[in-house]
Amino acid sequence: MDALSSSFITTNSLNLLRRPQLNPPTSPPLLLNVSSIRTEDRPQTQTTTRRTTSRPNNNNNKSSSPPPPPSKTTTTTKVRPSNVPTKSTPPTLEAATWLNLPTTLCNSLDGVINNFIDTPLRPSVDPKHVLSDNFFPVEELPPTECPDIEGELPPCLDGAYIRNGPNPQHIPRGPHHLFDGDGMLHSLRISRGRATLCSRYVRTYKYTLEQEAGHPVLPNVFSGFNGFAGIARGAVTAARVLTGQFDPRGGVGLANTSLAFLGDRLFALGESDLPYVVRLSPEDGDITTIGRCDFDGRLSFGMTAHPKKDPETGEMFAFRYGPVPPFLTYFTLDSKGEKRPDVPIFSMRQPSFLHDFAITKKYALFCDIQLGMSPMDMIIGGGSPVGSDPAKVPRIGVLPRYATDESQMRWFDVPGFNMMHSINAWDDDDDTIVLIAPNILMIEHALERMDLVHCSVERVKIDLKSGTVSRTPLSERNLDFGVINPDYLTKRNRYAYMGLGDPMPMMSGVVKLDLEQGKAVATRVYGPGCYGGEPFFVPQGTIDSTEEDDGYVVSYVHDEVKGESSFVVMDAKSSGLDVVATVKLPRRVPYGFHGLFVSEDELRKQRPPVL
């Protein structure tokens, strides 16, 4: 979720690479000894009260690192390095590189910045606050069977449910935003009523670099470039590039946001970088990172973490955004994963935070919201590199989905409409488009005070003939992270399954929303002290299942009272989203972002790993 600022870092770092480097990075060895610095079985703290995002005592706390977890062990695992499925692989540093003088100097400067230059940390970037309770990171977990299952897992769940999310491998030494953690995939492999949990890091270039160093190397994008300390960190990063400690061609992304399956490959996504190909073994459920994918050299920079896959054609539609023109670029991929040419959108007049978009059978829809890049606020005010602009009028851009240029792009002003996530969109007739999406009512809190964010689901109608836009609220409850039956993407549908924010980004339950009636028709609250994340809908997939809501809603749920996590399966058609199965997990799963269900057939069709 950090494409604006990380693209800026990468662009400027690549300019530095044109100068001679003192110590060019070396190639990785065939095998790496990976030693974890921290493991733990319990969250740092357990509480019976709801987590809030305002702790007054933290505002003046100079320390940037939370206390260590209750227990520590050290494990060693041999893994193969991630091979990038492209024509060239950005080199990785050997451990000996970290002993040279430039590295020691840069590390010392980092310490000075963290301890003496940083201003008192705001709660939104104070690790003691951000990484509290079930947000505290966990160690990797090899495939581990889950013998404790209540009820029966439906046959349509044979496959794997995978959820992505931030999980920093090192305790931050400076400011840290929730969005800054390394990507970790938590997968539940289900086969014939049995379940196996596996948690693995996405081995990005940044992860591997910092794993070898044994400590954080690159500044956190959302929190590390604020005020004078941010300028100093930028200078240290430039020095690392010039002295060969960091090669920006390897990317700075975290791959911590979502997943996609296309062309028999599974991708871990984060919009600040290229997608990372990962592979989930259908035999034992283990997850392996294959490497960055540039689609045979056709994708140069990042890609949205929310691409859209047409369930009928198998095509995928995506975009990227950044801080330099064109601020928005649209592109498509065929069902085999072959990327088509870019469509630059120069009518996007300034960099905007486009986290998600929507497609219909005929169009692609882009929401230019009141979040954008604000470098002066970042430098002078010490704020986030992404900030709100209350004077800006949000717009929706409509482009034919197979456009080869932006000549047919049309923009419609939609005052007060700030979409972070879309639910669905469809063509109502030849001249009308319907978009269903939550609207963030207080966009200024989206990054700094997520507990104050309230999302109201709306139906937005765009009349292409008259040029008018009408909006209808469908729910006043705080609902986000909505999903539908994936077979209905781009088509008129009736039901959406929404996370109930209580407060954001924690979800206290799931609400089934009737989009035609504009009301909730079923609700499942997890219980006191229990919170989940984004729900996911899995169709029943049988010949007899003809209704849109024939299927199951699944989610990881954490009990903060007991300190235990579970995988909950709900009957999507029932009047109360009845729980039909619960898998008690062998250890807790931290709160995260977006997930994906990969069917048994898709798992078996995955391409073999590239070694």
Automatic annotation (TrEMBL):
<dbReference type="InterPro" id="IPR004294">
    <property type="entry name" value="Carotenoid_Oase"/>
</dbReference>
<keyword id="KW-0223">Dioxygenase</keyword>
<dbReference type="GO" id="GO:0009570">
    <property type="term" value="C:chloroplast stroma"/>
</dbReference>
<feature type="region of interest" description="Disordered">
    <location>
        <begin position="18"/>
        <end position="92"/>
    </location>
</feature>
<dbReference type="GO" id="GO:0046872">
    <property type="term" value="F:metal ion binding"/>
</dbReference>
<feature type="binding site">
    <location>
        <position position="594"/>
    </location>
    <ligand>
        <name>Fe cation</name>
    </ligand>
</feature>
<keyword id="KW-0560">Oxidoreductase</keyword>
<keyword id="KW-0408">Iron</keyword>
<dbReference type="Pfam" id="PF03055">
    <property type="entry name" value="RPE65"/>
</dbReference>
<protein>
    <recommendedName>
        <fullName>Carotenoid cleavage dioxygenase 4</fullName>
    </recommendedName>
</protein>
<dbReference type="GO" id="GO:0016121">
    <property type="term" value="P:carotene catabolic process"/>
</dbReference>
<feature type="binding site">
    <location>
        <position position="421"/>
    </location>
    <ligand>
        <name>Fe cation</name>
    </ligand>
</feature>
<dbReference type="GO" id="GO:0010436">
    <property type="term" value="F:carotenoid dioxygenase activity"/>
</dbReference>
<keyword id="KW-0479">Metal-binding</keyword>
<comment type="similarity">
    <text>Belongs to the carotenoid oxygenase family.</text>
</comment>
<feature type="binding site">
    <location>
        <position position="306"/>
    </location>
    <ligand>
        <name>Fe cation</name>
    </ligand>
</feature>
<feature type="binding site">
    <location>
        <position position="355"/>
    </location>
    <ligand>
        <name>Fe cation</name>
    </ligand>
</feature>
<feature type="compositionally biased region" description="Low complexity">
    <location>
        <begin position="72"/>
        <end position="84"/>
    </location>
</feature>
<feature type="compositionally biased region" description="Low complexity">
    <location>
        <begin position="44"/>
        <end position="64"/>
    </location>
</feature>
